Fold each of these.
Amino acid sequence: MHYSVMLEEAINSLNLREDGTYVDATLGYAGHSGEILKRVKRGFLFAFDQDINAINYSMEKLSKIASNYKIIKSNFLFIKEKLEENGVLKVDGILFDLGVSSPQLDDAKRGFSYLKDAHLDMRMDLDNKVSAYNVVNEYTEADLARILFTYGEEKYAKSIARNIVKARSSKPIETTLELADIIKHSMPVKKTLEKNPARKTFQAIRIEVNHEIEILEESLKKALDLLDINGRLAVITFHSLEDRIVKNLFREMTSVPELVKGLPEIPDEYKPNFKLVYQKVITPSTKELEENSRSRSSKLRVIERIR
Ligand SMILES: C[S@@+](CC[C@H](N)C(=O)[O-])C[C@H]1O[C@@H](n2cnc3c(N)ncnc32)[C@H](O)[C@@H]1O
């Protein structure tokens, strides 16, 4: 079952106009896109996803709701280029709901889950060449340790990386459960009894396979470029590194540069082009947290073009 995170909060934050042009950068299972289309009756929605399974599902779902939309199979890194190809240079709102969807995690074949046995894959875009198998079997010990530590905040990153390299020296590590077993034996037994010991490592490898952190800032900058005056960009993140990127970028785009801060009159060219829609980050309601524990770490930030 797919549960759209902060559905109402995100949709309301976009301040949708019935005749506006909108972009859902992460279509997924079309929870947010469906709601956007219900409200944007005379406008248009462009929806991006890099996962063909998500697109196939959502194509059918959205066809029952409306016809004023186009689904684009692409990484959202190319949001600007793809919209340009469609003759669109400015839009009224863009939503990013980052990360993976529950159906992706739950589908054993995709190799995202440490609970289900499958070939190590974790690619959102099945056309991509590099999968979790390549990361686990081909990266150096130092790179593995760095990734696990940075993207997974895994305290036992070094020991896990060492054991991965040791295990693969006799035969490649092929499956999710083989990897989960190596992780489990790389930390004190006490730790393995708390949360699932493989959780952080799997998250880190998934982020690496899909370049989730590397492409975020550039993608968001392109999205900001696309916003028309009064247009809004709403971003839902699930990871502290992602949220930091969004927070810092939004802060930079909404502030006056240090250089001119003290001046009695700020010259026009230094005035920010954007404002924050909410001063504080939005998190899920208690009700949502009770209904969907996966929304636990989610955060919503929204920015608006004012000039
Ligand atoms: C959390 S889900 C979105 C769920 C969606 N908002 C809904 O209500 O059903 C994230 C989706 O974005 C897609 N995705 C993640 N990163 C992407 C990227 N860089 N480019 C395109 N799609 C991406 C994933 O394949 C996944 O389907």
Amino acid sequence: MKARIYYGSTIGDTEKVAQTLGKELDAEVVPISQGIKNIENLDLILLGSSTWGYGELQDDWSDKIDNLKEINLSGKKIGVFGTGDQESYSDTFCDSLGIIAEAVRDAGGEIIGMTSKEDYNFIDSKALEDDKLVGLAIDINNQDELTIPRIQDWVDQLKKEI
Ligand SMILES: Cc1cc2nc3c(=O)[nH]c(=O)nc-3n(C[C@H](O)[C@H](O)[C@H](O)COP(=O)(O)O)c2cc1C
């Protein structure tokens, strides 16, 4: 399986998650600032962003999210991941996952790797779909002890869904 991971990260949290995913999946890890290109031969693409402001994409994504809609992602399997803070930003927890997932679907991509919202404690999120999270939500601020197990479970799940 050939996978590539794109990420946007301001203080390094999402980058850390991206690097760990990269090791687990033997995948290239690329900052989103470099743009998404040459994806023809990929079996899996992972897109990661932290959430800033109140429910906004990480800065490096701001001019890339519209580009994403212009790329033809039909036939591509895509997982979304990111970091957020469910205590301080309980109404917008990991909103970026939902924003990116919507853009992926607009571009014809298939989202894989939905996860359970159990074990989190937040009020609302754009990442919520039918009571599930649309991807991997990591909270390094409040639940860092769950970071590695969550990443490992997600990698196992992605390998099954690919
Ligand atoms: C000013 C500010 C705004 C934030 N807004 C949100 C938010 O709306 N939702 C959320 O889940 N986390 C929010 N966070 C938390 C960050 O997403 C979190 O610290 C994350 O781990 C940073 O990851 P990064 O280093 O990859 O950018 C915010 C943090 C700060 C300092």
